[in-house]
Design goal:
The protein is mostly helical and 316 residues long. It contains 18 helices and five strands. It has a domain of 105 residues: Ankyrin repeat-containing domain (Serine Threonine Protein Phosphatase 5, Tetratricopeptide repeat, Alpha Horseshoe). The strands form two sheets. The protein has a three-stranded antiparallel β-sheet with strand order 3-4-5, covered by helices on one side. It has a two-stranded antiparallel ribbon with strand order 1-2. The longest helix has 11 residues. It is flat and about 55 Å long.
């Protein structure tokens, strides 16, 4: 009704925000919405289903659209971004069918094929191989790929032949551990840590440690594992806070796209590993005072912080 009455679909926002409802996206496109310059194509890669991406590509979306400024610039072209956020082989097939360059490189010079190997995406690897993008991996890349597949035996075999791993890995390779945590691949993160990855390396779209990503995703099991292996809740991230800030933002805003998040469970684990005592902020009862900061958490997490501060510590 709005479009028929003259509403402008090219307002710089509507197409981007329509993508969680592809029917709405289709209406906008049929009324002349332009894709270029909206970041809609990369936003479509946040969707676990490929419908929105296929719709944009069918209406002229550029599968080789240059990356703009900000977090998306880390990976480069849409094909690389799709692999980096662990989208399905169907997403990859749609991009390739629309003309995406299978030989595209990240700003760090990592090819789509090598990135898929390093992300442990075996089905995507086969898709890219079918597009002619296969290439041999150097020992350090094969080591990273084995870790990403959570293949401990192969990772240890390569490590035995190259004992300088993972210490000799580049910064771009090392950041794949927090990237993997951001993707939700807990078993791969565990293999990386057990193989000697530095636990406080930062990565992901918001330059955060694996512990921050685990808490953001509401993953108590991985949170416990990382803390037991030396991670600290004081580890920072790119928004200038630490794991407390991550727990605050995630529990209040409940980000979409995460399967069964358990921020209450993460809170219990953090308390058991020495999180400071919390108390109600007398000036604002929606906030708590913790670590010298007034912070807001979800109601359920706030209750755990207030009631659990006196619980026994796992490190005591």
């Amino acid at each position: 009704m709005l479009l028929n009455a003259g509403a402008d679909p090219n307002d710089g926002e509507s197409l981007y925000h329509s993508l969680e409802n592809p029917d709405c996206t289709g209406v906008l496109l049929r009324h002349g919405a332009r894709i270029s310059g909206t970041n809609a194509l990369r936003r479509a890669l946040d969707m676990p289903e490929s419908t929105a991406l296929e719709l944009l590509l069918a209406h002229g979306g550029d599968p080789n659209e240059p990356a703009g400024e900000g977090p998306t610039k880390i990976w480069g072209e849409p094909l690389l971004r799709a692999i980096a956020v662990r989208r399905s082989a169907r997403h990859i097939t749609a991009l390739l069918a629309a003309g995406a360059d299978p030989l595209a490189l990240t700003p760090h010079g990592i090819s789509a094929y090598r990135l898929a190997m390093q992300a442990g995406l075996t089905d995507v690897v086969e898709t890219l191989r079918g597009a002619g993008a296969a290439e041999a991996l150097a020992p350090n890349e094969a080591f990273v790929a084995a870790c990403a597949r959570a293949d401990t035996i192969e990772a240890r075999r390569i490590q035995a032949q190259h004992p300088d791993l993972p210490g000799s890995l580049s910064a771009a390779h090392l950041r794949l551990m927090p990237d993997t945590a951001a993707w939700g691949s807990s078993e791969a993160v565990k293999v990386m840590i057990e193989c000697g990855w530095p636990i406080d390396v930062r990565g992901g779209d918001w330059d955060a440690t694996a512990l921050n990503h685990a808490v953001f995703r509401g993953n108590p099991e991985l949170t416990r594992f990382l803390l037991a292996h030396g991670a600290s809740w004081r580890e920072g991230h790119g928004f200038g806070s630490d794991v407390l800030g991550t727990l605050s933002w995630a529990s209040v805003n409940e980000p979409t796209g995460i399967s069964d998040p358990d921020w209450i469970g993460c809170t219990h684990v953090l308390i058991a590993h020495g999180l400071p005592t919390a108390e109600r902020d007398p000036s604002n009862h929606e906030r708590v005072l913790i670590d010298g900061r007034a912070m807001r958490f979800s109601e359920s997490v706030t209750e755990v912080l207030l009631e659990g501060s006196n619980a026994p510590s796992e490190t005591s």
